[in-house]
Amino acid sequence: MILQVLSFGLFLKVLLLPGSNLAPVTEQNLEISTITTVPSNETKADFRFTGRYRLINSTNFDSFLSELGLGYFTRKLVCATQSEYIITYDRSDETHSLKTVTLLRESEIRFRDGVEFIENRIDGEKVRTVIKIDKNRWIQKQFVKPEVTIVREFDNNLINNTFTINDVVSIRVYEKVSDIDEESVQLDDEVEDY
């Protein structure tokens, strides 16, 4: 919605009404500013992240999983499996859902921006986690020794994921394959996390 604001220095003037004795508004004494407003029923454009994304590139993920403590065969199986993200947003309680789908299993994390929660990681650890949304980035911190940071940067139809543990960095890129109709998505309440 675009709102036009008419301003005259410190005064706001109303356009002439019939019978008014105010001076007419002219281009010389009129300054027009445009302000973009967000409808009150939408908050922070949280639907900009939603969609189904498919893994298209992965670099150094085996080393990242090794640093987490996963065994050789588990790492090889995880790295060889195609992965998808399904990201939804629930307007009623302002929660985001990141569901990871593979041939092996599915996991889901639900979170509110900046609110700590317990996450069941791929290595079986339950860790304190927080995800902070900063413009087009989700910055995730897992508070465990050693600390893990995952930055998901949304850029057009891609998500560039940077996984960091100690000095090991892995990059995984997901490409958007479809939009999600928010009304039709029903995610299971009981989903095994990994």
TrEMBL record:
Keywords: Lipid-binding, Signal. Residues 51-68 form the Cytosolic fatty-acid binding proteins domain. The keyword Signal applies. The keyword Signal applies. Residues 1-22 form the signal peptide. InterPro entries: Calycin, Fatty_acid-bd, ILBP. One of its GO terms (molecular function) is lipid binding. Belongs to the calycin superfamily. Fatty-acid binding protein (FABP) family. This is Cytosolic fatty-acid binding proteins domain-containing protein.
